[in-house]
Amino acid sequence: MGDSKSEPVDTQASESEIFSPPSDYKRVKHLKKFHKKRNDEELWLIKLPRSLDVSKLKTLPLDLNGHEQPMPVEGGNDDNTQYSIGEDKTQRGGQDSSNLSLLVPEENRESLKVSGHGNSLKFDKIFSVRKTAQIPNIDYEKLTVPRSNVVKIEGLRRRHYASGYGPEGEDEEENGKDDLKEDDTSKEEHTEHKSKKHKKHSSSEEHSKKKSKRDKKK
């Protein structure tokens, strides 16, 4: 039996822990002023991979119907890698993006805060830039190797078959055996019937012989 008592947790020590930023964190200085959102504007979130240099983007093609569009990168792409942009369907914008909040600079431009008073601003649309690999054209006819059959050894007999299958002609052999059994049964019945007739005939002959002997005695 083990001890079911749990160790006490020091809640005061856990609450007094000070948040420490990641080791590669760099403090942003001289933040630009973020103007207030007007009624005729939408707030979009565009997520980029770390490997993409934003300064090399020529254009930012967007398809509002949800289809991904290729993104041309200045200077080409390394290792046949391309980028495409499309709307992220896993995180919808508007009121459904409750897990995403917008951070804006404070008045002193030294720190960030959650935008809005009471309620933070919501993203109307969310787009994601994905890294895609360019698949080269493959000539399958040249790469396809014809299948070669396994060399069969003469004299071998298959012993095991798949479920529901058997050797060729097995059904015909079984039907032939059934026919032979029926023929044997009919022959036996015919022989038995013949022997009964023979017994009856021999018994009648014996009876007639006995009767003739009695008449002679008289």
From TrEMBL:
An example Gene Ontology biological process: transcription by RNA polymerase I
Sequence ranges of Basic and acidic residues compositional bias: 177-192
Biased amino acid composition, Polar residues: 92-101
UniProt-listed PANTHER family: ACR243WP, DNA-DIRECTED RNA POLYMERASE I SUBUNIT RPA34.5-DOMAIN-CONTAINING PROTEIN
Biased composition (Basic residues): 209-218
Disordered: annotated segments: 1-25, 63-117, 156-218
A Pfam family reported for this protein in Swiss-Prot or TrEMBL: RNA_polI_A34
InterPro entries recorded: DNA-dir_RNA_pol1_su_RPA34 (IPR013240), Euk_RPA34_RNAP_subunit (IPR053263)
Protein name: DNA-directed RNA polymerase I subunit
